[in-house]
Protein: Tripartite tricarboxylate transporter substrate binding protein
Amino acid sequence: MTTLSRRLALSLPALALPGLAAAQGAWPNRPVRIVIAFAAGGSLDAIGRSMGRHMEREFGQPFVVDNRSGAGGRIGTTAVARSPGDGYTLIVTSSAAHGVAPGLYSDLQYHPLRDFTHIGLVCTGPMVLLANAAAPYRDLAGLVETVKQRGTPASFGSGGIGSLGHLSGELAGRTLGIPVQHISYRGSAPAQTDLLAGQLELISDNMSSHGGQVTGGRMRGLAVASRQRLPEYPDIPTWAEQGYPDMVANAWYGLSGSAGIPAEIVSRLNASLAGWLATQEGRELLRGMAMQPEGRMSPAEYTAFVENEVTRWAEVVRVANVRVES
Structure:
């Protein structure tokens, strides 16, 4: 081999490297994992699978759901926090794991902001203060008057200590200036049973488990903690309409990923999320869960939203002196 031939042979691999690097860097060029930090069959699981099918069609690679349940979503969330920031590990997260948990658990194994790339808000489900239809009051003013006249706290139920229903109920009492007493249940159904039996005064929850009883006239929504009334329940007034404009409390789901995902990939995922939320499949799925489709926030706006949720619920936990076991 001549000297010139040897020089050409040595230079060919180097010349090929930029093209090779570009091919290796094209995203996605292999399956993307969507972690669901709860068991299969639930709301987050259904959202992840529907969204994944949409993204598969758009990006041409499998988007595989990986259910990692346990500890109220903290196990799967921690796994994502420890994953590489290459755009191949995503999570459909929730207000439980990324809004409330940071204020509840001192030993949390992830930081809700530093350890994640927040991509976009999927949906919101406003909390509603519910009463038995036979209660002597029909609105917040009547509730306040009743509680102050009798001099005993209003009992309210939720799906568990430290749940968003619990914290929003505590916030409701503070906002109204009345004493409240929380009663913890193992889910929404047993709380509803006691409310209908007259053994519980109020429930703080979203509408997913109670819509049938409200439309059937056995339960009454006193106030919905959103900016506008729910389209499906137009007779339930907002807190703002009754003189409490700052009382906004939502359960929410969002799309995030491990920390350090490149901005270009984040932008593409945010646009794809918005595209899925514009589909009939996506909107009908969320409305069936009593959730309001979102998708309007940019990644920066959604990151600021998560930060605000962490701050406000940590303050409620502190003031209400909520204690949970890890």
User: Anything to note?
Assistant: The radius of gyration is 24 Å. The first helix runs from residue 3 to 25.
